[in-house]
Amino acid sequence: MTDRSSLALNPGVRKREVFGWAMYDFANSGYTTVVLTAVFAAYFVGGIAGKAPWATFAWTAALSVSYALVMLTSPTLGAWADLRAGKKRLLMIVTAGCVVATAALALPGPGDVALAVLLIIVSNTFYSWGESLTAAFLPELARPEAMGRVSGWGWGLGYLGGMLTLGICLAYVLWAQSKGLPASEFVPVTMLVTAVMYGLPALVTFALLKEHSPPRADAREAQGVKASWQQLRRTFAQARNYRDFMWLMACAVCYQGGVAVAIALAAIYAEQVIGFQPQETMVLVFALNAAAMAGALTWGHLQDRIGHKLALGLTLVAWVAACVIAALSTSKGDFWWAASIAGVCMGSSQSAGRAMAGLLAPPRQLAEFFGLWTVAIRLASIIGPLSYGAITWMTGGNQRVAILSTTALFIAGLVLLTRVNVTRGREAALSAV
Length: 433
Description:
Helix 4 packs antiparallel against helix 5 and helix 7 runs antiparallel to helix 11. The chain has a single domain, classed as MFS general substrate transporter like domains (Growth Hormone, Chain: A, Up-down Bundle), CATH 1.20.1250. Helices cover 80% and strands 0% of the residues. The relative contact order is 0.16.
């Protein structure tokens, strides 16, 4: 970042802190790229579950259980962190939990469906908690007018981390396949690589990132989880004062459901419907992450210029196009077009949504409101993949119908986005006491 980038930061925030914050996106992106998208998802369906008719539904159900757990707990964790200025402490704990659980994914082999499901639930729950907590730091670091570009820096570096982790795994998989090793032997090694690539860069975050919000004055009177739930109930009671944040949450429930489909099922669709080989799928996901990095970096700057609402709306229109192309694809070349558009949209829509949430969240309740934001994202992650899996099951394995139905989620997101007034929502956030 150049000296000009300092103008994007809040007073007292150093550039090295922002780098440390963005390094967490770098660290945790390998988990979504390798575990949820490129490697373990397809291995679960084809290797562990043996391509059973219920395999895709079982995968989406496991993810849905973890997201339900996150929905029930994230706002409370956020309220606790706001009261005690404990975001960084909690982030360290949940990171350690995800790293250990990811390494443990090396244990399940063919037929070990129950163990694989359990470890996916545990690892994804810890991952989602970490994602919520790190997002809550964004409004502390960036000025309101620069929220989009700083969010984009994090997502951009994140996709770079995902590509690096996937690239290492791809190199190993190609070597293993040249030696004639089966997936049951080389997939576990990729899980260990992913765990290491999560844990080591996260140490940079913990070394550089600071907690800028002091403990709340009422923290001394707070009594553990009970006080956190009391604060959360007060927030919901005041929801009418933050109606634009609530409309944005409703919008996110819809469009992030579609994004979750792309993350959780891209590899499965590529292999089961289009005919990609595992190494081709990994290259596809690598390219998807490259496109997402470009989308996050460029769209973040554009977002600050044209407005958060318009920027997000444009990405949702492009998502609809990507789903239609994917559903109609009859060759690998056709599907590459859909994946490229989806990659750019993934980076831009996720960056834009996080920045808008940061603008509309009251400064004294950042972790709590990002906990609410996580509720919306994880509800979406239940609705999107689970509906995809259910439609696939009910149609006898027709994933083309399932991916085409995903367009409805993005269209609904567009409709709900029209109800968000960013200026009004920002004023409500700043007037909170």
